[in-house]
Write a structure and sequence with these properties.
The protein is α/β, with parallel strands linked by helices. It contains nine helices and nine strands.
């Protein structure tokens, strides 16, 4: 069903027609720059949209005494959150499930608000909920507003590659399939009312990952004029409220089950670059 979670009628239709017992809320506006320009959109989708889903899940799964109905004893409302709800870090330490919320952008504020509603519905109505926090995702098909596809798009268009400030802001990167495998594990092994951090353990500055991408492109499609793609990097004025560093202490559940052991960051990045360059694997 193609619809809008910010549209109550769309959400009601899905719940009344299909009666789901598992809901994983991936849907979100997620580009910080866009949230600065249009915060109302992020309130509508990320916060009100999540609340719409929670209300319909409660109607379907929970009776008037806040007891799960028999067909929905194993139901789960799974909220996909972000490390950005915790705010910014210095060069030391990492966030974990007990870290206090401290959002700095309209995007992270809208996601933090949604998370609070999820927790409130668990505590108030006994709705079975789980929240997981993920670091920056990357992979094929990602929207080109995101850093990695944006860098590759600039190369394809032969235009300057904008990097905020001096490029020293640090992010932790996780491949999209690793994230999905972790979500599947949480669905199988996680406990209602709990939160789980999903980190990629691939921290690097924005400038470092930009250079790594360009080094790969230099090998995959060498410039005919023998120029280096590095020459296209252009440092631009930093955005407002730009968090310096995100880092997550990955939940013990993932280490116990070896969820990330088979994944290679460099190979996944190379595959992602090849995808956006329209090169065969």
């Amino acid at each position: 069903v193609r619809g809008d979670i910010a549209n109550k009628n769309d959400v009601q239709h899905v719940f009344q027609t299909h009666k789901p017992n598992i809901l994983i809320n991936f849907a979100a506006e997620s580009h910080v720059d866009s949230s600065i320009n249009n915060p109302n959109l992020f309130l509508d989708v990320n916060t009100q949209g999540t609340l719409n889903l929670l209300i319909e899940a409660k109607k379907l799964w929970v009776d008037e005494n806040n007891i799960l109905k028999k067909p929905f004893q194993k139901s789960i409302f799974y909220q996909i959150s972000t490390d950005e709800v915790f705010g910014s870090l210095s060069n030391i330490n990492s966030f974990d499930e007990k870290s206090p919320y401290s959002p700095n952008s309209p995007y992270s504020a809208s996601k933090a608000s949604a998370d609070h509603f999820v927790k409130a519905f668990h505590n108030t109505y006994n709705l079975p909920t789980i929240i997981s926090y993920s670091s920056n995702n990357f992979g094929p098909y990602q929207n080109d507003e995101k850093l990695i596809p944006k860098i590759i798009s600039c190369v394809k268009k032969n235009i300057d590659i904008p990097i905020y400030s001096d490029g020293s802001n640090i992010r932790d990167w996780i491949y999209v399939e690793d994230h999905c495998n972790a979500i599947n594990l949480v669905l199988e092994k996680g406990k209602p009312g709990k939160e789980y951090c999903i980190g990629g353990s691939n921290e690097m500055s924005n400038l470092e990952i930009c250079k790594l991408i360009l080094e790969n492109i230099d090998i995959l499609i060498p410039d005919k004029n023998k120029k280096k793609y590095m020459d296209k990097i252009k440092f631009v004025k930093d955005r407002k409220g730009h968090d310096f560093r995100y880092s997550l202490k990955t939940s013990k559940i993932f280490h116990d089950h070896g969820i990330f052991q088979d994944s290679s960051f460099k190979e996944n990045l190379k595959f992602t670059i090849s995808h956006f360059l329209n090169l065969k694997k």
